[in-house]
Amino acid sequence: MYQPKFAYAVWPWGLDRKEQMIQALKDVKEAGFTAFESVESAVDLFQNNVEEFKDIISEHGVYPVSFYFWQNGDETHDIGSVERKIDFMVANGVHRMSVQAPQTDGTPTSMENLKRVLKITEKIGKITKQYDITPCIHPHHNTMIMYENEIDFIMQNTDPEYIGFGPDTAHLAAGGCNPAEIFERYIDRVQFVHLKDLKEDAELESTGNTGFDVYNNFMELGQGDIDLKAVFKILKDHECNAYMTVELDRTRYTNKESAIISRKYLDRNF
Hints:
Number of domains: 1
Oligomer: single chain
Distance between the termini: 13 Å
């Protein structure tokens, strides 16, 4: 029988202190999750002490399954960031990483820029392949991979041996895509998933004080208008082995309460 794998994104608890990660692990464990994703800057908190990180995750029984990397379009920076952090990921048994394209103002991406993102991402994939880590392209609002044609170009011009797909239900909707259609189209490439909800008429509001956009309008699962059940059906029909990672940039309650709400929705509907 198919058993989906669930995780929770812990970066909203904070990225400045180890205590924030510890609290996040406590909360998501109590909400029913035993796996998590954080962002690349979280690696820096423990870069010189892998054993301390391992002790913390073992104590709380919640383990990393991905780290999230965001590109700025500079090849040296984007590749170098992965190279500096890959040993940490390997040491913790991580086999997936989410990859976000460079930020934009929502203007459609030129072919020149798409080809540049493609080139950098392919190089990253060939590096991480040696360590059994798959970069997963993560379409994201106000980035160079946001709209359907941009997603199609990247997915149709990357080698599945090196590059996976990491779709996000809410960011697909925010980019004008039908999430279920995109999941179905590239289901054989899906190796990581972000799940969150969004109201149909929402105008996205964001802040960037963490080094990347943080959106105020995303919602717990079942609180918005995205047809999540259609996405779930596709994932189940294909027995997708990817981690289904619940993420919420900013909660209306507490981070723990939001995790509990979404976990209950998964238990009822997945």
